[in-house]
Specification:
Radius of gyration: 26 Å
GO biological process, one term: tyrosyl-tRNA aminoacylation
Catalytic activity: tRNA(Tyr) + L-tyrosine + ATP = L-tyrosyl-tRNA(Tyr) + AMP + diphosphate + H(+)
CATH topology of the largest domain: Rossmann fold
CATH architecture of the largest domain: 3-Layer(aba) Sandwich
InterPro entries: aa-tRNA-synth_I_CS, aa-tRNA-synth_Ic, Rossmann-like_a/b/a_fold, S4_RNA-bd_sf, Tyr-tRNA-ligase, Tyr-tRNA-ligase_bac-type
Family: Belongs to the class-I aminoacyl-tRNA synthetase family.
GO molecular function: ATP binding; RNA binding; tyrosine-tRNA ligase activity
C-alpha cells in the first residue's frame, strides 16, 4: 500500500546521504549562505556541534507557515544533535522590522505584545517537540542518540538593562551608517513617499546586537532567517567582526537565509498576502493544516515534501514518481498532508485528519463508524457542531450553515441537502429526525457538493 511507502523506503541504504548543508540546499531550504561557508562545511563534516538561532517578533498571536521555512533549517540541525536557540523579540517587536515592508507597522499595546510573546514561545516548544517525535517515528534507529538542546530566549531580558548613552559609547563606533543605508530594506523605504522612521532605521542595529549577545553569552555562531532578513543577518556578522578581537579561538559568525514561501505560480504566503496558515491550534487546527496541503497543486508536491518534512530525498522522489503515474488519485497530496500534519501537530494527527477528510468528502462511509467514534474524531478536529435536540431540519440548517429560514428552505427545494451515509436527498422540512441519526445522537448533513456537517444532537 502507498501509505506505508515512507517506512519501507527509509530503511534503504542504496546511497550515502548528503552532508547536512548539502541536504538543505537540495531541499530548497537555503537561499543564501553568509561567509564563511567553507568553515561551516568543515565544522559539520568533522562532527562539531553548531549553535544556531532564529528569531520572530511578537507582531501577531501566532507563527505561520512562512515562519516554518527557516525553522525547518533549525529542526534539521536539532535532530542531528546541534543546539538551537529560538528567540522571540519582546524588545525588537516594540520597534518594528522594516524588512519586506512598504509601510510602517501599526503600534501594539504592551498587554497584547506580552501575550504574543508567551504564545510564540509555546509554539516554539511545540514545534521542536513535535518535530523530534516525528523524526523518531520515521528514523527509530538513527534517533536513538537524541536531539540537541532547545533554548528559548526573549531579547527583552537583556535590552531592558541597556542604557542608550552606554550603548552608544561602547558600540556606536562599530556601527557604520554607510552600510545601514545601503541595505535594500532601508533604501527602498527611504525612496518611498512615506519615508522611514528612525525606529525602523535602527532595527538592524538591535538585531545585530542580539546576534552578538547570543554569540558572546552562549557561543551561538550561526543566524538563520527568511531571505528578507539577509541585511539584518549580515549586519550582525559585521558587528561581531568589529567588536570581537580576532584570534585562533574566535568563532566565525555566519548566516543562512531560507527562501520566502510561495507556490509554483508565484503566489506568496503570509499575513500580508492574506492567506496565512497559523501554528496556534486555537486559530488553525490539524485538520486545517491537512486540508491546506491536500489542496497543493501537483507542481508543488515535490518541493513542499522537501521543505516541510524530514524524509530522505530518495523517498520523496519515489513518492512523487508514484503520484505522477496517477495524479488524479492525489496520492502525493494526501501523503504530503499527512506528513506535514504529523510534524506540526504530533504523530497520528495526520492519519486522524485524513479520516476526517475522507468522511467529509464521502470517500469513506460514516455508516461504518459509531456515533461515539464520529464525535471523538470530529471533536479532536475541532469541527464537530452541536445543536439542541427536538429541532426541525430547517432550524438545524439555519444554525450550522448558517443562513435564514427562507434560505434553508430554498436549499431544500433545490435538492442541495443530503442526509446520513445514504446521502438521501431531502427536498422539504422534516420535524422528526430520529430515523436519520446515528445511534440517536449524530446527524450527518451535507449541503451542496463540498460542505458536510457532523452534528451532535444534545
Amino acid at each position: 500500500m502507498f501509505k506505508y511507502a515512507s517506512r519501507r523506503l527509509l530503511s534503504s541504504t542504496a546511497k550515502s546521504p548528503p552532508g547536512l548543508l548539502e541536504d538543505l540546499k537540495l531541499r530548497g531550504l537555503i537561499a543564501q549562505v553568509a561567509q564563511p561557508e567553507q568553515w561551516l562545511h568543515e565544522k559539520l563534516s568533522q562532527g562539531h556541534k553548531i549553535k544556531l538561532y532564529c528569531g520572530a517578533d511578537p507582531t501577531a498571536k501566532s507563527l505561520h507557515l512562512g515562519n516554518v521555512v527557516p525553522l525547518m533549517i533549525l529542526l534539521n540541525f536539532y535532530v542531528k544533535g546541534h543546539d538551537v536557540f529560538a528567540l522571540v523579540g519582546g524588545a525588537t517587536g516594540r520597534v518594528g522590522d522594516p524588512s519586506g515592508r512598504t509601510t510602517e507597522r501599526q503600534g501594539m499595546s504592551d498587554d497584547s505584545r506580552l501575550d504574543n510573546v508567551d504564545r510564540i514561545q509555546q509554539q516554539f516548544t511545540r514545534f521542536f517537540e513535535n518535530g523530534w517525535k516525528y523524526y523518531e517515528s520515521r528514523f527509530p534507529q538513527i534517533s536513538a542518540r537524541g536531539p540537541g538542546r532547545l533554548v528559548k530566549v526573549d531579547n527583552y531580558h537583556w535590552w531592558k538593562d541597556i542604557k542608550l548613552l552606554d550603548f552608544l559609547a561602547q558600540y556606536g563606533r562599530h556601527i557604520r551608517v554607510q552600510s545601514m543605508f545601503s541595505r535594500s530594506s532601508i533604501a527602498s523605504r527611504i525612496e518611498g513617499k512615506d519615508g522611514l522612521g528612525f525606529n525602523e532605521f535602527t532595527y538592524q542595529v538591535l538585531q545585530a546586537y542580539d546576534f552578538y549577545h547570543l554569540y558572546k553569552t552562549h557561543g551561538v555562531s550561526l543566524q538563520v532567517g527568511g531571505n528578507d532578513q539577509w541585511g539584518n543577518i549580515t549586519a550582525g556578522i559585521d558587528f561581531i567582526d568589529r567588536v570581537v578581537s580576532s584570534g585562533s579561538d574566535k568563532l566565525s559568525p555566519g548566516g543562512i537565509t531560507a527562501p520566502l514561501l510561495s507556490t509554483s505560480t508565484g503566489e506568496k504566503f503570509g499575513k500580508s498576502a492574506g492567506n496565512a496558515i497559523f501554528l496556534d491550534p486555537q486559530i488553525n487546527t490539524a485538520y486545517d493544516i491537512f486540508q491546506f496541503f491536500y489542496n497543493t497543486k501537483d507542481a508543488d508536491v515535490c518541493r513542499f515534501l522537501k521543505i516541510f518534512t524530514l524524509l530522505p530525498l530518495e523517498t520523496i522522489g519515489t513518492v512523487v514518481q508514484d503520484h505522477m503515474e496517477q495524479p488524479h488519485l492525489r496520492k502525493g497530496q494526501r501523503f504530503l498532508a499527512k506528513e506535514v500534519t504529523d510534524l506540526l501537530f504530533g504523530v497520528g494527527s495526520g492519519e486522524r485528519s485524513s479520516k476526517v477528510s475522507e468522511v467529509l468528502f464521502g470517500h469513506v462511509s460514516e455508516a461504518n463508524m459509531s456515533a461515539d467514534e464520529l464525535i471523538k474524531l470530529f471533536s479532536e478536529a475541532k469541527i464537530l457542531q452541536k445543536v439542541p435536540r427536538g429541532q426541525s431540519l430547517v432550524d438545524i440548517i439555519t444554525q450550522v450553515a448558517p443562513c435564514s429560514k427562507s434560505e434553508a428552505r430554498r436549499k431544500l427545494s433545490q435538492g442541495s441537502v443530503l442526509l446520513h451515509s445514504s446521502k438521501l436527498k431531502v427536498t422539504e422540512n422534516i420535524d422528526q429526525l430520529g430515523q436519520f441519526l446515528i445511534d440517536d445522537k449524530v446527524l450527518i448533513l451535507r449541503i451542496g457538493k463540498q460542505k458536510c456537517h457532523v452534528i451532535e444532537i444534545l
